[in-house]
Amino acid sequence: MSGSEPAYKKDQVVNVINSVIQKMQSQGAGQADQIFRELTQLKTMIEELRADISSAQPGEIKNTHIPSATDELELVVQATEEATGSIMDSCEVIQQQMDQMEASAATIVEGEVTKIYEACTFQDLTGQRIQKVVKTLAEIESRISNLLSLSGAVPASSESKPVQSEEESLLNGPQSKDKAISQDEIDRLLSEF
Amino acid sequence: MSFDTSMNVLIVDDYNTMLRIMRNLLSQIGFNNVDEATDGEAALEKMRQKTYGLVISDWNMEPMTGLDLLKNVRAKEDGNKNVPFIMVTAESKTENVIAARQAGVNNYIVKPFNAQTLKDKISSVLN
Predict the structure, then answer these.
(1) pLDDT single digits (tens) B16-45
(2) Which residue, A32, B11, B21, B99, has fewest beta-carbon neighbours within 10 Å?
(3) What angle do CA A72, A73, A75 make, to 5 degrees?
(4) In angstroms, rounded to a whole number, what is the distance separating the alpha carbons of residues B103 and B98?
């Protein structure tokens, strides 16, 4: 199957099956050779479909890419929550100082602090939107599992991963806290060179 | 505004950030007796212990949503049965608003909202 052809030739498979059934019903056993050829063609198509699914590495998508994307999104929620918390810590300190300000200044400061609180509601909304994306990823993961089980494609453990260059393998973006090393550790590491 | 700000207020949201924002905005309006709950069931537990003058709740929470909380509150024959209830939520479809109204909500605020909107809605349900 060439790369430009659709991976799933459902219509062709159905057409071949219908053709075989018609021949068996109308011609009897005399057309055995023709039926054999068509069945062989059908078998080839099914094998090509399975090969195409395997080459798309659905197991890796399910086991690596989707969990990784989900983790990254959850870290975004966590980071924005922490940042919003810090902003509000500062707002609360400012509010506590307002008693010591002149009335006109206190009014202005309170208005601006209120605007900051209003802006901080973004964290709730982005969090909800990201949760929707996470649910969608879970649905995709579930459907890939079904596809894998129906097609009998090669399991993820025996799939060959695409080769990454050394530079590509170093580009992983921000790390979660349990995987990242601290600035102190970086300084210590560098001092050893 | 001409309402009693010494009343007990219950705010319900599963996002701590929103609880904190709401508490601070309510404090600016003058409400200082504010309790918090992180889902519908936790809110009902608070309401078993205390009578509230106002409930402000998110909708999208687990395991008990704000809508289920509202239905539970209106179904119970206790001091909180008729408490003014404001839904503050990102759910902004017409059918959501209708469902909340049919369940007995007093007002409905769509996130993101500003402090003036919150004040106006509180004023409208308490006056």
Answers:
(1) 889 999 999 999 999 999 999 999 999 999
(2) A32
(3) 65
(4) 9
- Using DSSP's 3-state secondary structure scheme, residue A75 falls into helix
Q: Is A47 at the interface with chain B, CB within 8 A?
A: no
Spatial distance between the Cα atoms of A58 and B61, rounded to a whole number of angstroms: 33
Residue B29 — φ and ψ, nearest 5°?
-75, -25
| pTM, 2 dp | 0.71
User: Of B26, B24, B108, nearest to A90 (Cα)?
Assistant: B24
B111, amino acid identity: K
Q: How does DSSP assign B6-71, residue by residue?
A: TS-EEEE-S-HHHHHHHHHHHHHHT---EEEESSHHHHHHHHHH---SEEEE-S--SSS-HHHHHH
For chain B, say whether A127 makes contact (Cβ under 8 Å).
yes
Considering just the CA atoms, what is the radius of gyration of chain B in Å? 13
Interface test with A, best of B15, B22, B26, B91 (most A CBs within 10 A): B15
Distance between CA atoms of residues B103 and B71, nearest Å: 6
- Under an 8 A CB cutoff, do A121 and B24 touch? no
- Chain A hits for B115, Cβ within 8 Å: 114, 117-118
Neighbouring residues of B48: CB distance < 8 A, sequence distance ≥ 6: B78
Measured between CB atoms, does A124 come within 8 Å of chain B?
A: yes
B90 and A128 within 8 Å at the Cβ level: the answer is: yes
Give the three-class secondary structure for A192. coil
Contact yes or no for A118 and B28 at CB 8 A: no
pLDDT in tens, A80-131: 999 999 999 999 999 999 989 999 999 999 999 999 999 998 888 888 889 8
